[in-house]
Amino acid sequence: MAIIRWNNDVWRPAEEMKRLQNDINELFDFPALFPGRGIFDRATSPALDMLETEEGFVIYCDLPGMDEKNLDLSVASGVLTIKGERKNPAPGKDAKMYRNELWEGVFQRTLALPSPVATDKIEAELKDGVLRVFLPKREEDKPKQIELKVK
Amino acid sequence: MDDKNVVAKPQETSRQIRPLYCIAEDKGEVTIRLEMPGVRKGDLAISIENSELRVTGKRSKDAITGNYLVRERRHGDFANSFTLDDTIDQNNVEASLENGLLTIKLHLKEEVKPKRIQIKTS
Known about the structure:
The complex is a heterodimer. Chain A is mostly beta strands.
């Protein structure tokens, strides 16, 4: 596949339809859902995972190239909000862009937390472009093992 | 310069992810930026062999396991390769990894760079 400059001047409706059809056909082929191309890759919204463990909730969010200065986390009434702005280095005046799949701009993600969390014990770190947030459950919400005494 | 000097080869197997990237050329310098979140410097390998630039980045598995409530991230190792043509100087390649964003700088060979010729006025 050769890299050619993106050219909007030439409108090829048949090609565009074909591309869309291919994308939709591949949508439910499982490995093809993820390879990073297709109709859902242009959204300016970073992908995140949310896991529930016995101790709490863990959120991983891919934010490559982002600084913690441009990132804002808040929890209010059981809703976690991740806000930020990603800026890519501006290309020079004479730069030719051959391909650009990197997004930039302002984003916001909100996540409803399934159960209340201890808001004063939330940990967050941004490392190697991955944001990890740990939201511990409150002591009273943690699952407890009740020992049965058999007499 | 021709538009064909960097050609990407699609590399897709089930466990490998092609990282999102951009390629820009400015004043004889070709910059490739690849998104590789979660890849540390030691887990990154960049090689040039038979004019093929290959980038692989291994990711350590997330340490915490639990029930996924939301799962949108792509899990697996990053890999992609680019074919370099003769206009690129293969001995002058710089790479830097910062916050999961890999920047590779390639340079065009001196003889293919556009030259400005000074006109002397008498």
